[in-house]
Amino acid sequence: MTKLSDYLRVSEAAEYLGISPNTLRNWERAGKIEAHRNPVNSYRLFKKEELDALLKQVQEPDEPKDNRPRKSK
User: Which ranges carry the HTH merR-type domain (predicted)?
Assistant: First the structure.
């Protein structure tokens, strides 16, 4: 059973991620993160473990960057 305490509201989740609430709403619309709806008032709620997964994904790039100097033209 999922508890309401496992979720954060938009402003709380945005602060948790270090972004603005509007950025979080845009990410939800773009499909980068899923918003769950409160059954009583339909507010957006974000699951803490999904926020943690998003942070981990951002902090750990998939491939190492190429550090070779670029040739100038």
Answer: 7-55
